[in-house]
Amino acid sequence: MSQTGSIPTVSIYGIPFSKLTMKETVQVLEEAVLSKQPHQVITANPIMVMAALENPAIMKVMKDAEMIVPDGTGVVWAAGYCGDPVAERVPGFELLHELLRVGENYRWGVYLLGSTPEVIQETAVRLQQQYPAIRIVGYRDGFFGSDEDEQVVASIRQAEPDLLFVARGADTQEPWIHKYKHALQVPVMMGVGGSFDIISGKMKRAPKLFQKLRLEWFYRLLREPSRAGRMLALPKFALKVMRDKENVTKVR
């Protein structure tokens, strides 16, 4: 089950979102690691869908991914609203932890890429404490230019990780993984956005109440008002889905 062809999906504006539960998602990715074939996993939300609709290059990255999971509540709502629901929300933060939990059984190697030198170092320390049986085979911060890409790719390849987590912001991490997917040769590669900030303790995750009400995005907005511009994509997405209801899930 290494290709999206065998994963049940719903098309949201041409982007194939997995309909699997968290448990099934982890099983598929466990098989992906054992297959040794490179898989790019994208944890997508409405902001990324809107970006893909405006930018053909982002759309190509999304369509080429081996698996896209519905990380955003808005995506889960849209699929249900248009009559082709997904099983549940699959948040990237939880998926990262579930993969590490399974990885302990196999002693998987993990490479962490992105964020600041302090955050990435603290993330490596904390994950190793939390999952003692996984192997942190390498980490480096995200402050490198495209002229250093080949050197970074070479050092990741040399470390031979089973999992690669990249935190470089949604606009750069997914295209970067897409560009170097075959050169990296890592079985499972996933962009994880701000996850390292939370794991390292630099940032707090939304309180349980916000998580339960599916308002993590609102909590982040309260903490970081500078995100307001990006957040405008959420109501725009909802209005667009309501307007396009009959055509949202048509495969393009």
Automatic annotation (TrEMBL):
It comes from Paenibacillus polysaccharolyticus. Belongs to the glycosyltransferase 26 family. TagA/TarA subfamily. Catalyzes the conversion of GlcNAc-PP-undecaprenol into ManNAc-GlcNAc-PP-undecaprenol, the first committed lipid intermediate in the de novo synthesis of teichoic acid. Pathway: Cell wall biogenesis; teichoic acid biosynthesis. PANTHER family: PTHR34136, UDP-N-ACETYL-D-MANNOSAMINURONIC ACID TRANSFERASE. It is an enzyme of class 2 (transferase). It catalyses: UDP-N-acetyl-alpha-D-mannosamine + N-acetyl-alpha-D-glucosaminyl-di-trans,octa-cis-undecaprenyl diphosphate = N-acetyl-beta-D-mannosaminyl-(1->4)-N-acetyl-alpha-D-glucosaminyl di-trans,octa-cis-undecaprenyl diphosphate + UDP + H(+). Transmembrane segments: none annotated. Pfam families: Glyco_tran_WecG (PF03808). This is N-acetylglucosaminyldiphosphoundecaprenol N-acetyl-beta-D-mannosaminyltransferase. Its EC number is 2.4.1.187. It comes from the Bacteria. One of its GO terms (molecular function) is N-acetylglucosaminyldiphosphoundecaprenol N-acetyl-beta-D-mannosaminyltransferase activity. Keywords: Cell wall biogenesis/degradation, Glycosyltransferase, Teichoic acid biosynthesis, Transferase. Coiled coil: none annotated. One of its GO terms (biological process) is teichoic acid biosynthetic process.
